[in-house]
Amino acid sequence: MTQSTYTRETFDQVMVPNYAPQAIIPVKGEGSRVWDQEGREYIDFAGGIAVNALGHCHPELVSALKEQADKLWHLSNVYTNEPALKLASQLTEATFAERVFFANSGAEANEAAFKLARRHAFTHYGAQKHEIIAFHQAFHGRTLFTVSVGGQQKYREGFEPAPGGITHLPFNDLAALEAAISDNTCAVVMEPIQGEGGIITGDPEFIKGARALCDKYNALLVFDEVQTGVGRIGELYAYMDTGVTPDILTTAKALGGGFPVGAMLTTEAIAASFVVGTHGSTYGGNPLACAVASKVLEIVNDRQLLDGVKAKRERFVAALNAINAEHNVFSEIRGKGLLIGAALNSTWEGKAAKFLAAAREQGTMVLVAGPNVLRMAPSLVIPDEDIDAGMAGLAKAVAEVVAAGPDA
After folding, report:
1. Which residues carry this modification: N6-(pyridoxal phosphate)lysine (predicted)?
2. One of 102, 247, 253, 330 is an active-site residue; which one?
3. CATH at residue 139
4. 164-208: per-residue pLDDT in tens?
């Protein structure tokens, strides 16, 4: 291929150093395959961190974007627009929600959710009811408010003083939640499956107990479904697999299939606390984003596709178990659907990045969820042959890392 003007070294020269991207630069994607500047092909198990729900350049999404691009790009929220109204209608018809607020990302959707929870409590109960309960190892975004609600100190360090009134508890510990919640609690915030925290699934009894405690203390239950939503676990949203309905739900990532969009979903009664002027977003509800997301939702909200997600998981798990039987590197396989975590055992703790880099060299793109967990969040419609090819690459990578030893 022709030598590009821009290389990985260009990143170090012109970009803020808050990321450490891999050595390759992908330039083209189709389905679950990606090609870099040198023409090397990769199987994509990363999915843009659970974003590319239908793979790269899905023809129906490309068509939806091109069609809308010829009509209307942006208006601001001084006006509404048809794609936003269509998408909001789809979301309310498919979920518990009656009202929708659009944003551009998961962090913005969570910011809106947390602000709404406090505003609702302020409106109905007074200023003292402002406390938010969240959980250790949770991740809710990178704004100052969302990083404060998130339960990972490393992301708050150096940005203090952080917003107050936030308590962090052990995830899946119902007794701790019962001891901490009070009449001053405005919201309990959780991911049904903690993503960045290591693909930790919420215990069904814990989630049901949290719902009951929120009802007892007039607190709102907020589900961050930025990573678990839009088909990722084999249901349209993960709450549908818990027997529990939240008061507020946030969604992003897969919602746009690669185009930036986020949304906060809630009931009519709770939404009423966001009166005119209390919150906003310049680009939220953008016609381009909503047109693409509408097509994503139309395709994904299909029982056959969702059942296919669960079947494809079994193929991944079987391949991971086969790798583990040979090399003994994983302690357990976590998650649901196509949100998969392969937790490294004590011999390989802290070495997840080594496996990621080795997999890349074998033509398989994976993620990590912290230093101890390999994460996979591929396209929901990834072909079986791509699963097999990608897992073959991962198997070679694991063999290579194991041969070198944990101290290499």
Report:
1. 253
2. 253
3. 3.40.640.10
4. 999 999 999 999 999 999 999 999 999 999 999 999 999 999 999
